[in-house]
Design a protein that fits this description.
The protein has 126 residues and is mainly β. The protein has no helices and eleven strands.
Length: 126
């Protein structure tokens, strides 16, 4: 299974970006996988941003993402999105998408996820 993240880029503070993540390979569209978003800023550890269950319910957010980011997915396609609004310089990081095993539970812990994408850079200029 491969995860492909896209949608990163350079944006001014206050702007918005929408990240996408699609799972492909040996995975059935019917095998619902919990999906999560993490990010890693230079010199910092990877941190949780948001997650959503395989059925598209139970979205979870980090405190910094609450009220600004929205996680969603296309059910049965193992494609997830992260809509990021009101971006600020502290959001600058490489954003990674991750997926659980089929029917796995998406949590705030990176240990819940078995598959990881390559990351997409988000840079917010102030």
């Amino acid at each position: 299974v491969q995860l492909q993240a896209s949608g990163g880029g350079l944006v001014q503070a206050g702007g918005s970006l929408r990240l996408s993540c699609t799972a492909s390979g040996h995975v059935s569209d019917r095998a619902e996988m919990g999906m999560g978003w993490f990010r890693q800023a230079p010199g910092k550890e990877r941190e949780f941003v948001a997650s959503i269950s395989g059925s598209g319910t139970n979205p979870q957010y980090s405190d910094s993402a609450k009220g600004r980011f929205i996680v969603s997915r296309e059910r049965r396609r193992n494609t997830a999105y992260l809509e990021m609004n009101s971006l600020n310089a502290e959001d600058t990081a490489v954003y990674f998408c991750a997926a659980t095993n089929p029917w796995g539970v998406a949590t705030m812990s990176s240990h819940s996820y078995y598959y990881w994408g390559q990351g997409t850079q988000v840079t917010v200029s102030s």
